[in-house]
Amino acid sequence: MICTNSSSRLKGHRFPLPIISYAVWAYHRFALSLRDVEELLSERGVVVSYETIRAWVGKFGSGISKRIRARRNPPSDKWHLDEVVISIRGVKHWLWRAVDSNGEVLDILVQTRRNTRAAKRLISRLITRWGEPRVIVTDKLRSYGAALRKLDISVDHRAHKGLNNRIEGSHRLTRKREKIQGRFKSARQAQKFLSIHDETANLFRPGRNKMTASEYRNKRTTAFETWNRCAEELAA
């Protein structure tokens, strides 16, 4: 289990906080379905339906991720922006995403358009949350440059497909989850799920290849402690 305070109880819930927190964490941390999480809990002696797990994820996921985001250090001053198409009920949507130079996701935005207005909306959200960066790297979509001109932002804009590989890993994770879920059900559901999923990934992917084994273990322990603290605050 993740949480160690097994006495934590949530009003109106039959199971204690450690079990609920573990289920929400496992669902967003790994490429698992709700039924997969149900099976993991069953192996640990916890008999609960996947529909109950769905309710836990819906109720507690956003609150935990918001608290994790509030604890994050400021991002680097170099951002990578990109957009990828996703299908929702047969309708084409665009998932706009921004990561910093360390690969941490800064924000995602599901929109129906791939134009200047959509690019401007993403960049405005990013600047409101994180301030202005030094460099923005994008592909050759002209909407980015037009959006930056409309916002009158004096940043170094580098539009080159080959420079934007940093963001591709985040798209691959989205594709994997999209396949497991059998496509997203609505733009709102995709926005909510991916926001939590990316925030969880930021916390638990500390760049293992860039640190020693002991540093990695310390980072992982800190990530678990942060998750547990956020869950406990939500339940307080």
Automatic annotation (TrEMBL):
Molecular-function annotations in GO: DNA binding
Highest taxon listed in the record's lineage: Bacteria
Source lineage: Bacteria, Pseudomonadati, Pseudomonadota, Alphaproteobacteria, Rhodobacterales
Keyword DNA-binding: yes
Domain DDE residues, every copy: 77-204
UniProt source species: Pukyongiella litopenaei
Gene Ontology process terms (BP): DNA recombination; transposition
Annotated protein name in UniProt: IS6 family transposase
Alphabetical UniProt keywords: DNA recombination, DNA-binding, Plasmid, Transposition
